[in-house]
Amino acid sequence: MIDGLPGRESVATDMADGLRGRESAYDRQRLIPGWDQDRLAAATVVVAGVGAVGNEIAKNLALAGVGRLILCDPDAVSVTNLSRTVLFTPGDLHGPKAEVAAESLRRLVPTLQVEPRIAPLISGVGLGELADAALVIGAVDTIRARMQLLGRCALVGAALVDSGTQPWGGEVRFRPPDQPDEPCYACTLTEHQRSHSDLPWSCFEPRDTGPEPASIAAAALVGAWTTTAALEFLMGRPPAWRLLSIELTGRTSPVQISRNPSCPYHHPWTDHPSPLASSADTTVAELLTEFAPEDEPETWTDFPLPLFCRVCGLYPQLADRPDRDHVQLCARCGALLRSVTSVRLRDAGSDIRLRELGVAPEEILPVRGAQGERRCVRLSRG
User: Fold this and answer.
1) Residue that wins the pLDDT comparison between 75 and 207
2) Which of the pair, 340 or 201, is modelled with greater confidence?
3) Which residues form the THIF-type NAD/FAD binding fold domain (predicted)?
4) Which DSSP string corresponds to 312-345?
5) Least confident span in 5-9, 52-56, 297-301
6) Alpha carbons 226 and 52: distance in angstroms, whole number
7) Is 271 helix (H, G, I), strand (E, B) or coil?
8) Do residues 64 and 77 lie in contact, with contact meaning Cβ atoms separated by under 8 Å?
């Protein structure tokens, strides 16, 4: 037993025993009118962000009997997480959130299939996985991350339940699958807000510039409403609302939103991606054998290229001592070396594996043809 969390082992044992015997741990749920335990067991749900709200959502879905969870989060457990997360303990400090949460969920529900992805969403979960998932859930903490998640779900027509908190409440937004004319989160933002590159407050920041106020009350309430929306959708009864405003004072109500004609998040791919034999573990050289010489496969994020000296025309050794501004200099001629990035896979080293360039498993990659035409291809599971 873990201090402060009595009964965790007994719950896991009860579930395992129940699934092996006549009495199931889910028998009480099956008594609920309209409940479909088999649909939950067959579902794969992607959870982007497993901080406070993500902890609640992942725990709730696992206990409800969802069969497979993909947990994606690039961050580590901090001490301020401990007052708002049931899956993290003091012994987990500085461990990867996704991995720690996955291990806790396996102990809680031994039958659960759970995969941690220690990476930002765009590198951790491929578009193919988003398209195949029964549902995608967002519990990320910046506008930019929410826009990135929304954009990737919009491209492949994935269903999305997106959540956010504020000190005394929060919100939950539902984006139905394959309905590009439905209003979305981005419809309620200005063009500036949609393009704003905000950064999350780190839980390790000094107290005078520290993270935003937060509590378990807001996280638990928003997590519960998000779980409710997710379960409704997974069992074939999607919520009628698109935006739910939640207040700790006791008022929770749907908010009417309308489609913004200028919102760019309503243009899904219509062409089915061509399957590739290559996977995220394939090298660039192996991948390129599947394309014609004039094809230009690209990534979704920039990757760094080797530093190149434009004076010498070489890839030089760096100078032993950088100058006072910490720029990098060519050891041969002293010229300034500038960092260069690319999304063109032909620019990458031939022996580099795609995952090392930030390419997610089962990613759908854009390809530019010789005449500028665009198509998409999908990596295999590998």
Assistant:
1) 75
2) 340
3) 27-264
4) TTB-PPBPSS--TT--EEBTTT--EE---EEEEG
5) 5-9
6) 13
7) coil
8) no
> What is the distance between the alpha carbons of residues 152 and 124, in angstroms, rounded to a whole number?
12
Q: Determine the Cα–Cα distance for residues 183 and 172; give it in Å rounded to an integer.
A: 14
Q: Strand (E) positions, 145-265?
A: 160-166, 169-175, 243-247, 252-254
Domains of the chain by range and CATH? Answer: 8-254 (3.40.50.720), 274-378 (no CATH)
CA distance 69 to 60: 11
> Residue 172: pLDDT above 70?
yes
Residue with the bigger pLDDT between 318 and 42: it is 42
CA–CA separation, 130 and 178 (whole Å): 13
| Residues belonging to the chain | 382
CA nearest neighbour of 252 among 171, 310, 185, 136: 171
Q: How confident is the model at residue 372 (pLDDT cuts 50, 70, 90)?
A: confident
DSSP 356: G
> Both tokens of residue 86?
């049931």
Backbone angles phi, psi at 248, to 5 degrees: -70, -15
Region 153-179: what's the mean pLDDT?
A: 93
How far out from the chain centre does Cα 28 lie?
32
Full-model pTM: 0.83
**For residue 3, what pLDDT is reported?**
36
What integer pLDDT is reported at residue 53 of this predicted model?
97
Comparison of pLDDT for 21 and 250, the residue scoring more: 250
Report whether pLDDT(6) > 90: no
Q: Which residues are 164's β-sheet partners? A: 171
Tell me phi and psi for residue 56, to 5 degrees.
Answer: -60, -45
Report the alpha-carbon distance of residue 156 to residue 43 in Å, rounded.
18
> What is the torsional sign of CA 352, 355, 357, 363?
positive
DSSP 115-143: EEE-S-HHHHS-HHHHHHSSEEEE--SSH
| CA gap 2, 282 in Å, rounded | 42
